[in-house]
Amino acid sequence: MSWAEIGQRWKVRLAQVDWYLCFGLLFLLLVVLGLSMGAWKLNLVVNDADALPIEAVAIRGERDRTSDEEIQVALQDLMQRSFFSADVNQVQDALEALPWVYQASVRREWPAKLKVYLVEQQVVAHWNGDAWLNIHGQVFDAPTRTDIGPLPLLAGPEGQSKVVLTTYRQVSELLKINGFKLDSLSLSPRHAWHGSLNNGIMLELGREDKMARIQRFINVYPTLVKQSKPVAKVDLRYDTGLAVGWENAQKESQ
Fold first, then answer.
1. What DSSP assignment string belongs to 197-250?
2. At residue 178, does pLDDT exceed 60?
3. In terms of DSSP bridges, do strands 113-120 and 131-134 run parallel, antiparallel, or are they unpaired?
4. What are the structural domains of the chain?
5. The pLDDT of residue 193
6. How many helices (H) and strands (E) in the chain?
């Protein structure tokens, strides 16, 4: 085959090519490459803490037990990220891990600020000696503080904190309107209730009919205080009566 024939064949083939389609595909490829390059460069900028740093964190909400220093320490690693790459969920988790923070909400504010709203734990009782109980009946651990006033001592098995707090509120209210103050309430592993008043009297309430037994104590107390010996303990685990432990008798038995 001569070179002239080869040239003629290529000429025919080239004449059959859809050049509009070819140029269109080439243009599309260039556009995709350009967008990919732009996205890559944008990603570098967005994740560059030097180019788009977080310049400020605005904290709102009432804070009595969470200091600025604690917040700074909790966020120091996350603050090294850029404004866009910082994960607000991680910031929220870091803040909620602080002992006295109950809830945190975080959002970005253009151009370089994080806005944080904190809700602190509202403590209502001591729980099992070294833990705390909040208003929702949830147990949380936090350091001991001297600025918290006297709180009731509540105790019970794991997972029973809400039940104990609810029962404390009910029993305490009934006692309060009758001139008594409940200092502590505990639920044993066998689900028996034990309480103590601020005057030192111990109450054994058993498993059932707690409110009825408290009312029985209230009704009989005026008679008890007329006795010559102070009351140390009242066992109300009876259907119709009660047993009284006298303070002097208990001391003598010891």
1. ETTS-EEEEESS-HHHHHHHHHHHHHHHTTSSS-EEEEE--SSS--EEEEHHHH
2. yes
3. unpaired
4. 56-120 (3.10.20.310), 123-252 (3.40.50.11690)
5. 97
6. 7, 12
**Polymer length in residues for the chain:** 254
Pairing type for strands 113-120 and 56-60 reads parallel
What confidence score (pLDDT) does residue 28 get? 72
Give the chain's mean pLDDT. 82
Q: Is the pLDDT of residue 122 over 90?
A: yes
Burial of 220 (0-12, 13-18, 19+ CB in 10 A): middle
Give the number of other Cβ atoms within 10 Å of residue 141's Cβ.
9
Arithmetic mean of pLDDT, 136-144? 94
CB 228 within 8 A of CB 249: no
Q: Interhelix angle for 210-224 vs 161-176, to 10°?
A: 40
**8 Å CB contact between 172 and 182:** yes
pLDDT at residue 233 in the model:
96
**Best mean pLDDT range from 5-19, 98-112, 125-139:** 125-139
- 8 Å CB contact between 67 and 95: no
pTM value? 0.75
